[in-house]
Amino acid sequence: MSKTSSQQTQPQRIYRLCERLVPWLGMLSAALLLGGCLWGFVFAPADYQQGQAYRIIYLHVPAAIWSMGVYAAMAVAALISLVRQSKMAELVVAAMAPVGAVYTFIALTTGSTWGKPMWGTWWVWDARLTSELVLLFLYAGVIALYNAFDDRRLAGRAAGILVLVGVVNLPIIHYSVEWWNTLHQGSTNMQRTLDPAMRMPLRMMIFGFMSLFVTLSLIRLGNLILAQQRACGWVAKLANKGGMA
């Protein structure tokens, strides 16, 4: 198969893959998140120091982890798009960005909710909190840049460059509690600090957030492919049959 033919059929093949994977990943996400929430918020024991307030970790920690994980995945896709001039990699960046932005927003809001009883205030310009806020602005900038240009290739390149520039913020977020004297607690080892009854639902939520990220990104990727390929015959046939929303 020629390179041109492969480029023409790649969007359709990837869309079909998204269509097949989304239902299974959606069910896995629902099972993990429902099980993790029930176990963590209902059945896990209270913490001996923080009481019931600690339970917000089952939302905050997974969201915070994947707020950075999604951005790292976007950086890999952005690098591929710039080096190999890959249109599909540009679409992957665009598909992931809103999911990462929502995760970052959840991490910030749950962190503030947790910080109020622990620190006595909703917000401080703490190094960890501030760098996480910068991450939210980076996500917003990527989304805005991608939608600011009519030329899709120019939009993809601009968004990809911003993603790669913003990668420097990830180690700042991760190591901020070690580099600066902050209110945010330092990194902890779950194997040693959490009771197994608390640790297992947290792991379920971490994997649930990851699975949900993949599911939502594939849904968005499929929709972006349809929008980009709307003039192609296979999209018209799919519209008549009814494909992914």
Would you write up a description of this structure?
Helix content is 79%, strand content 0%. Residues 1-6 have low confidence and may be disordered. The protein has helices spanning 3-43, 57-84, 87-119, 127-146, 152-166, 169-179, 190-193, 196-228, 233-241. The chain is mostly helical and 245 residues long. The protein contains 9 helices and no strands.
How would you briefly describe this protein structure?
The protein has 245 residues and is mainly alpha-helical. It has helices at residues 3-43, 57-84, 87-119, 127-146, 152-166, 169-179, 190-193, 196-228, 233-241. It has 9 helices and no strands.
Count, helices: 9
Determine the N-to-C terminus distance. 31 Å
Proportion of residues in extended strands: under 5%
Which segments are poorly predicted (pLDDT under 50) over 5 or more consecutive residues?
A: 1-6
How are helices and strands ordered from N to C? HHHHHHHHH
Q: Main sheet?
A: none
Overall pLDDT level: 85
Helix content: over 70%
Give the radius of gyration: 20 Å
C-alpha geometry: globular
- Structural class of the secondary elements? mainly alpha
According to DSSP, the number of beta strands is 0
Question: What would the keywords be for this entry?
Answer:
about 240 residues; about 0% strand; mainly alpha; 9 helices
Set out the fold topology:
Blueprint: H1 3-43, H2 57-84, H3 87-119, H4 127-146, H5 152-166, H6 169-179, H7 190-193, H8 196-228, H9 233-241
